[in-house]
Amino acid sequence: MSSGFTSFVSAAAAGIGDIARGIADLIYPPKCVVCGDIQPRHLCEACLSKIAYIEPPVCHKCGLPLDDGKCRQAMCGRFPFFQARAVVIYEGVVRQAIHELKYAGLTVVAQELRDLMTAFLFRTPDFAIDASCVVPLPIHSSRQRERGFNQSALLATGVADYLHLSIDSKSLVRRVATRPQVELSEHERMENVKGAFVAAENAFAGQAVLLVDDILTTGSTAAEAAAALRKAGARAVYVLTLARSC
Length: 246
Ligand SMILES: [Zn+2]
Ligand SMILES: [Zn+2]
What we know:
five-stranded parallel beta sheet; 7 strands
């Protein structure tokens, strides 16, 4: 109790935002969203150490780890984006953390997930070097209402802050409420997202855009969004996702 009181007093001394955080921490001490350990962060060191990073060599274009020096992605040459990169493999800890974020609404873990993305940008300073704005992959307005947030937008704010770029979450819109891609075969995924995105005319004229999403599976969603950005004048589209299924 006394240490709780002390932390409340020090929080009060530090400012209003910190007071709120101090109270929240007393009532709901932060814990790891994956293993449940009471921790100062929402992903603990033990869970973080289990994350599988995507290591080079990867396809210069789509970012898939190379197989005998070749890209296995049949669609690769036709993707309308310039380059796509993902930070980690979509499995285990990251898979669970993304699920907790999206389906249990544990948005507190977004900070740790953002940190994984900015650490990638720190290690890869030449990626998207000419990007002039960050666009989160939009979800349909009906899903946004139901979920209350767009997980890609939560990740994109960290990316935009790190790169000192503006974020545009308005000009690209998802006009079709598509079925979740995870339920579908590769061909169905392409059909499912066809024409799903539209961007305001000339909204991205002459810009190099960095599109941010949580997961890349076959790349068909990112490809459709990139095509809409190109149609709205973007001269190049980069894609950065937290995770990908390899
Ligand atoms: Zn943990
Ligand atoms: Zn490729």
